[in-house]
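To whoever picks this up:

The parser on our side crashed when reading a file containing two proteins. I've narrowed it down to the boundary between the first structure block and the second sequence. Both blocks are reproduced below exactly, byte for byte. First block:
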Amino acid sequence: MNMANHLDCVPSTGTVSVYKSKILKQLGFRSEALTEDADLGLRICEAGYRGIYVDRPIGYGLMPYDLEAYKHQKWRWAFGNAQSLKTLFSMFGKISFKSWFGFLLHLTAWDHLNFLPFAVIAAYVLVLLPVTPLTRQHRQLFDIASVSLFATLICKRILFWVSLRHQEKSFKRSWRAFLVHMGMTLTYSGAWLAFLFQTKLIFERTNKFILIKMPSLFKNTYRELFLGIWFLAGVVAAFSVGGSIMTKITLLTSSLILFCVYYVNWKIYPTKAYSKKLLADMEEKYKPYLVKNEVVKNKA
């Protein structure tokens, strides 16, 4: 968001955004946009207005505390921002290129096209087993997939380091952010794949209620688990057939990326306790008003 201030492309997204009422009445929210705030931010800029990011907390929001809700939220963000790219491309030439490019960076923040490299790498494991004879074309495809995968990793790692370099414990925080982001690889990739095939989705509110029982971890991670194990089988096969060091590193790295989803689950689990405390504090703070309203309601 600080980058957005610099590039004059503040997209008005987040828990606490303040708008001029006349602008909301003029432009309104579009229900077909799954990330309605990002869509509105683009149209605000197109209409000649601008947003400012103030790096100071003035409100709080509840995070999803279970992996199922967290994945739903991230899927919606990735898919909704992909939808907003249509609006952005229609704005090309109507706003400054600096702002346009800044919006492009923002809307593609959840962009992972790793489903293509992963598909190639997963198929390459069959060549190593060996089920299919290894050809030059197989090696070329694998090399392209490897370069794509590591380019994504390097770019994302640099992005988090640059974004958090002025924060406290910047090195540790940037690594944590990077691992959480990579743990959502299949979610981000799947959302963009759904968008590319024009899948119709409806807005789904992220659950932030305190559930009695946590959703099944296996149910929400079995794709990452099975594919990660498959890549580990490829590592074993590479050692058996004498595969190159690059083949082993790529397969092992792909597996570790997928297993980052368990790091995500570990990091968000404590938010349940935070949410309970926040809700209890708010209830205590506003208890006099709640009791008063209940009395008035009963009299009525």
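<<boundary where parser fails>>
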Amino acid sequence: MSIELAVDGLGVATLSLARPDLNIFDLAMRDSFIEAVTAVRDHPDARALLLRAEGRHFSAGADIREFGTADFPLDARRIRWDRDPWGPLWDLPQPSVVALHGHAVGAGLEMALLCDIRLADGTSSLGLPETRLGMLPAAGGTQSLTRVVGPAAAFPIIAGAATLTAEEALRRRIVHAVVEDVEAEGRAVAERLAALDPVVAAAGRRALHAAGDLPLAEGLSVEHDLARWARPQTTEGDAT
């Protein structure tokens, strides 16, 4: 099985990439990933997501061998776009943390950029190498990386197909922390996220997304509506 999912008693849903050592995504793995993320979204006990990987590397991205199964590489990519696993991850109501190690490149980095908290260990190397193949990142990388670091910082990483060490990624604010034991720290962070009120956590995630999507006035309106929706319910006679 290329994707494994488990939900523990604390409300942490652990989604593991299980196609070591490189955890390369083919169409079957993408479909399994979509099913797993959808299952997390709908699971009544899942309050936070921990995304991790088996083997020496988090993910080396897409299986470019599949590009040869179509007449043109862009046709192969179009087939893949019809099965988009990244949108469900971005839209997930539960907060998410990703634990990176080894290679996290291409789609491997792009899925990590859609998580709320990104942790890496010292072995991590991160990058978007698609321009070396004459293509742009197409799993959201141009958008998600720009949201994280801004267009001026994102451009040389994408255009130059740069590969960054964990410390370089930390300096550029692509990851939030570099830790010695990324598995243990990732689980600890996920448990703290799972302890949040799920309504407030979901509302906060939506409000933060609105900050990147909308003009300030519209974003403030969304924040106001979400704050009203997420506030604790009062009983009759309580102050409001």
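After patching the parser it read the second block fine. Residues 234-240 have pLDDT under 50 and may be disordered. Residues 27-42 form the longest helix (16 residues).
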